From TrEMBL:
Source organism of the structure: Durusdinium trenchii
Gene3D superfamilies: 3.30.230.80, Heat shock protein 90, C-terminal domain (1.20.120.790), Histidine kinase-like ATPase, C-terminal domain (3.30.565.10)
One Pfam assignment: HSP90
Family stated for the protein in its record: Belongs to the heat shock protein 90 family.
Protein name per UniProt: Uncharacterized protein
Amino acid sequence: MSLRSVSARSQISGVAPSRTPRWTRRRVRDRCVRSVWRSSRDVSGPVDRCRPFSTETHEFKAETKKLLDIVAKSLYTDKEVFIRELISNASDACEKLRFLQTTQQVKDVSDAERPLQVTLSVNESERKFVIEDSGIGMTHDELIEHLGTIAKSGSLDFLQRGESDASKIIGQFGVGFYSTFVVADKVEVYTKTADKEKGEKGYLWTSDGSGSFTITEVDEVPRGTKIELTLKDDATEFSKLATVKKAAQKFSSFIDFPIYVTEEGEPKPINKQEALWMKSSATEEQHLEFFRFLSGNSYGKPWYTLMYQTDAPLSIKSCFYIPDPDNAPSRMFTKDPEIGISLHSRRVMVKKHADGVIPKWLHWMKGIVDCEDMPMNISRESMQDTRLMEKLSMAVVRRILRFLQQEAKKDPEKYQKFFRGYSYFLKAGLIEDKEGNFSRHKDDLLKLLRFELDTQLDLDKPEEPEDTDAWHCQATADLCNPSGSKMRKDKRVLTEEEQTQMQKFIKSVLKEKVEQLYDNACIAAGTLDDPRVLMSRLNKVLEMFVYQGAGYDYARDRRVNVSTARNLSR
Ligand SMILES: Nc1ncnc2c1ncn2[C@@H]1O[C@H](COP(=O)(O)OP(=O)(O)OP(=O)(O)O)[C@@H](O)[C@H]1O
């Protein structure tokens, strides 16, 4: 039987022969047989002169193995997340190619006539789920690097903390490509890089998720990536058209490339392709959908939503969400967080995590900033680009802070809950803004801070506030700055005299404590440059303990002789 007839009979069902690339028309096994053997240079030579493409076997990195083991054995109920992860990767791959082409970083594109798109297809009888994109693709080395190690620092964190509950890991971080092993016992990835300068060879990556993967060179792979899953017995629902179509619709509404599901041999478009942030308004339902899409979750709703569009000082179209304060990130695991807002220019993604525009203390916000004036190949080295980023950042952050001020006035109770969840980041913002942004957002930030006092503050009879939490103290110290914004008591602005009194009061009450507490706060925030400065103060605190413990009033009488102190410390 000729290869052609085998291929024609065993094509993946639902793929239109006339509208789809050649590779989807051939059964995988046949293509592998055909492609792992290739003629020697002398094509007219006998069959025994053919030599096989060698198949390399690689071990997954240790953490990847651990993650795969947890994921593959999981009984995770929300299995469809793998579709979201694969669609998102396929869309990122298209986005990347569009970006590199637009910025002339890829000049010679493979299969240049292939439009940027994503296609999903299934084969129920063979338990197959297939997704293919015409995006950037991967070279041999990129395959090893990208699919052999864990990319998501979040899931790595979880593993390092000894977490082994797959539902928590998958629920919170998605685990990207590896979520395929929740549903598949065999994963095959066909890929070819779009950049001809990097090579024109195609590769097949295969794994059953049990510790190693193989890579084989393959003929006739078009530009992009095709992922073929052989589904586990308990996941055969994902070889059903109706299930896949429903899930794909749910996860692809805002993808900026056409997404097709092959139905009765015809690719049918399923996504609306709407970039919400470019619209002048949107319904609550649309925001909910977009928020979930950006957070990579199929649940949850935003606490606050802000759409911000302006033409001056820059042309900005943006959409921001603040997640439920109950899910605010823990400050213990946010030392080097990824910014949740991406930067676009006329819909094309310029930066996935828009640092430079959004400061770290606002990393927990989700959203998109689209700025027409932004060059696509923005560089950190160019002063002009840096200035543009700063200008954009000023406009966007100021708008966010003023929006929060408005919300605080509109619904103080709702704001109170927001503040409880995110207060640490706003207080940290005050410090980071001072250090990295000349305190340009200080006035706006101060208006957002709230302090709890156990007793009603009496300016004539000062009492010490109970809450002397370190950030609190630092923020309070900032308030003491005479150029600070006005403080309020009982919803009225304090008079100048009252403010001076208040500053004196805070300084008198917190004087000794702010010494040491400020440094503790700096250690917690990882901003203390020289820990040696702590030593003399720590020694003093210890000395204080020793004296006070023995009944001496250290603050009033420090003239206790040294031998008494030595005896005491024993
Ligand atoms: N369809 C694809 N085309 C090209 N490269 C891909 C594709 N799918 C995955 N990759 C590569 O593999 C890497 C790992 O993918 P994975 O989904 O595990 O994490 P990620 O996508 O980097 O994480 P995140 O979802 O936070 O962006 C990607 O960063 C990308 O470089």
